[in-house]
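Chain A, query sequence.
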Amino acid sequence: MAPTNERQMNDTSSKASESPAEPKGKRPPVLVDGVTLNGPTLDIREAESFLREAMPIVMEEAVWKATDVKEKVCEWRSPEQLKDLLDLELREGGEAHPQILQRCRDAIRYSVKTGHPLFFNQLYAGMDPYSLVGRFITEAINPSLYTYEVAPVFLLTEEAVLKKMIEIIGWQDGGDGIFSPGMETTQTDIFLSFFIILFSFIFIFFFIIFFIFFFILHLLHHLLTVIERLSLCSAGGSVSNMYAVNVARYHHCPDVKVLGLSALPRLVMFTSQECHYSVSKAAAFLGIGTNNVYVIPSDKRGKMIPAEFEKQVQRAKDEGALPFMVNATAGTTVLGAFDPLEEIADICERHNLWMHVDACWGGGALMSKKHRYLLQGIHRANSVAWNPHKMLMAGLQCCAFMVRDKTNLLQRCHSAQASYLFQQDKFYDVSYDTGDKSIQCSRKPDAFKFWLMWKAIGTKGLEERVDRALAMARYLAEEIKKRDGFRLVMEPEYTNVCFWYIPPSLRDTADGPEFWRKVHAVAPVVKERMMKEGSMMVGYQPHGDKANFFRQIIISPQVSREDMDFLLDQIHSLGMDL
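Chain A, predicted structure.
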């Protein structure tokens, strides 16, 4: 006879105790605080019907068409036009499903398609199918990575990914790390996350009433924020860089955690003039002060000058301050430059400074045997920030912060020992409860999508992706040299290809202030025209005393040589009359 489980025994006992006279059917409702409690309020069949109708829209419009080179990158509308088209007002009563489905179509239609082969505007692009499915799963399960009991699979996959990344950095004795919130959010990403919930939900959890109810509540939140401009969002490695400053400060002055800034001498940190703006933000947020961020000059290629760095360290000491860390950049935002890490590490060792490497953008080159020389010396860093959602296409957000430390420094620096989460008398190994290493409480399982993608294509596949992107950048640079009216700002070191377009009316004009003043006005007009046409998206900016130039970023393996040729042809077509 098969064993009877406890629930079966309880059911049998319950049935035996029922009175024959007890009426069958629904239990009578209960009134609590004026609310009638009588089973779930969600119509399961109606919810399932909506999901089955919504998901084909998502797959067709947000996945297949959004990655088709023959489709538009964007369908531009002004904020005023978009407000009218979307009917953003939230009312007392809900709308019928046909209206909601149209809201879905409109939100996708008027969002920028960041997975499109001709989207070159940011330091992320493309759509990896394995990463996308990883996001489907994590959004459906909706875990939080503070304790093993809540997120066993996702804590273990995060641990596996961090271990491999630490190995690739070159820390032979190991280290520690955590995936931090990147906060580089786009409108498309917010809306897609809503659909991810629905898609995963259909195939995995639609039969669980609680999850259905929970997800529908989240639906309201996502619809509320889909078009909202998130003014507090920052770039992907911002929080990782803030981690670095906080950990470096604690490493030098552990009393700061309890006694605060009043117990510290004046602290000074160093970074190059090409660094990401999040470094100065971190100094402001953490009470160090932006005046105590000493900016080191960079050479003409955008690399920190080591001799100038050491001069600034000595200056801080002469002033009676305590120099405590340097932020070196591996892959600057505009020029794609890599600071000389070996020389910087030598100076850090001489002066007992914490060396942090912001490799959020350039860290992808570590996957390539051919190009990892760009980060020569990164193994000597005390901490590293690396965003796989950028060059490696893991999908927003995916931001790793790692330290070359095995003394539990992250835990000691950030732990608050919340007793309702991190009980020490649990029935399993509580060392897997890693949440107290983080500055957050709730934390998304951002490593899982990277883990799934890595499992699917392997280290070799990631290497090929990086090598191809750099080869495509080299192809574009050579094409620019061949074409009249195009001029490289400098030879690309990474996949940032920076160039000017000079329209025919200026090609016979001698270089000088007036020439560059006119060139400065070209890129904004070309950008406006390409956006309104929807043909592609390329960023532009000034840099130092240089006039506005285009910054072409190459990441996605979907990008072809024909796309590069189209890019140059299109810029000429849009700007030839200027």
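The CA atoms of residues 184 and 235 lie 5 Å apart. The chain has three domains: 44-71+75-110+186-225, 238-417+429-453, 456-575.
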